[in-house]
Amino acid sequence: MTPAADPHKRWLRRLIGYCWRYPRLVTFALLGSLVATVVAVIIVGLVVGAALSARALGGQVGVRE
Fold it and tell me: Is 47 contained in some domain?
């Protein structure tokens, strides 16, 4: 078997081909993961921002020193 015809080297292309049989599901999955990532970044930013602003104002953040 030649290296170019080796099926183990084209597994990702085959997988994408199989998944793309259902383009609506692939699109929903990609958009869902993008939305979840954005929400996670926003939540982390709010928590860190609140902790930093509380510390700057002299408040307790919940961490013992």
Answer: yes
Burial of 51 (0-12, 13-18, 19+ CB in 10 A): middle
Rg for the chain, CA atoms, rounded: 23
pTM (two decimals): 0.60
- How long a stretch of residues is the chain? 65
Tell me if 48 is assigned to some domain.
yes
Alpha carbon distance 32, 39 (integer Å) = 11
Give the residue numbers spanning the domain of 37: 23-59
For 11-26, the pLDDT digits (tens) are 999 999 999 999 999 9
